[in-house]
């Protein structure tokens, strides 16, 4: 359900045999498949606990992106392994948002060139690959060596982090923007703006639907930010020594 009445007073974390657990009063949080909700490190546990502690009279599950990502990592509803996750992520290169260009109108074509070329150039230099762009409906011809390089790079992440990376990619419709965001080359705001470049161009030209545009923009920023934070926290092995949740 999208919302449920808040049934707990206090949120805390504790360390169990399998990792860190979330406690809602005296109940231990479970996944949708009734598995014990256990995360690999304290930093991620605190972030998830903060989501639950921030809920008011009702629990708005659709706002709890970190909890959802943890549930996905724990339950693995699609039953994919690491290789399948990596292949799914790299496949986005074939339809990457920043690689598809228009020829008309000229103003939009110029905007795409000015805004998207620098992020492609960064990725090509960062990973020592060739990517390019195309105005063809079939998109650019991505070399096999480029795909192999990204496969190798993504293989350095653990399964949890890969779930987060794929989540960010599906939000931005771009592997290149996602890696720029996760590598801290660009901000969440910039990544979202670049992913919505054509839409933003049309809004500047024709105006936006009252409130709907702002809502979509904020939602996309929230999801991209949560996914990026999830990747970083899942790649973190150290323990947080100070308590962030205060009564």
Q: Can you walk me through this structure?
A:
It is found in: Mitochondrion inner membrane. This protein is α+β, with helices and mostly antiparallel strands. It folds into 2 domains: 11-75, ATP12-like, CATH 3.30.2180.10; 82-235, ATP12 ATPase (ATP12-like fold, Orthogonal Bundle). Helix content is 52%, strand content 9%. It contains 10 helices and 6 strands. Strands 2, 3, 4 and 5 form a 4-stranded antiparallel sheet that branches. The longest helix has 23 residues, at 212-234. The protein starts with a strand and ends in a 13-residue tail after the last helix.
Please summarize what this structure is.
Interacts with ATP5F1B; involved in the assembly of the F1 component of the mitochondrial ATP synthase (ATPase). Interacts with FMC1. The protein is an alpha+beta fold.
How far is the N terminus from the C terminus? Answer: 28 Å
- Give the helix/strand class: alpha+beta
Largest sheet: 4 strands, antiparallel
What integer value in Å does the Rg equal?
Answer: 20 Å
Q: State the domain count.
A: 2
Instruction: Note the total helix count.
Output: 10
* Helix coverage percent: 40-55%
CATH fold name of the largest domain, please? ATP12-like fold
On the 0 to 100 scale, the average pLDDT is: 91
Query: What's the CATH superfamily of the largest domain, by name?
Result: ATP12 ATPase
């Amino acid at each position: 359900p999208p919302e449920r009445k808040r049934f707990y007073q206090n949120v805390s974390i504790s360390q169990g045999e399998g990792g860190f657990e979330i406690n809602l009063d005296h109940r231990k949080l479970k996944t949708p498949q009734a598995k014990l909700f256990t995360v690999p490190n304290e930093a991620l546990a605190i972030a998830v606990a903060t989501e639950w502690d921030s809920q008011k009279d009702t629990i708005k599950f659709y706002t709890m992106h970190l909890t959802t990502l943890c549930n996905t990592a724990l339950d693995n509803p699609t039953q994919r392994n690491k290789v399948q996750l990596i292949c799914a992520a790299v496949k986005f290169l074939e339809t990457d948002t920043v690689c598809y260009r228009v020829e008309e109108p000229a103003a939009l074509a110029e905007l795409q060139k000015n805004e998207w070329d620098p992020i492609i150039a960064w990725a090509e230099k960062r990973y020592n690959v060739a990517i390019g762009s195309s105005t063809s409906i079939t998109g650019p011809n991505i070399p096999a060596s480029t795909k192999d390089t990204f496969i190798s790079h993504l293989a350095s992440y653990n399964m949890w982090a890969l779930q987060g990376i794929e989540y960010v990619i599906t939000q931005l419709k771009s592997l290149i923007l996602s890696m720029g965001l996760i590598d801290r080359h660009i901000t969440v705001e910039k990544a979202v703006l670049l992913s919505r470049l054509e839409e933003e161009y049309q809004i500047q030209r024709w105006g936006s639907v009252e409130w709907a545009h702002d809502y979509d923009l904020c939602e996309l920023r929230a999801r991209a930010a949560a996914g990026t934070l999830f990747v970083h926290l899942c790649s973190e092995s150290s323990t947080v020594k100070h308590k962030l949740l205060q009564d």
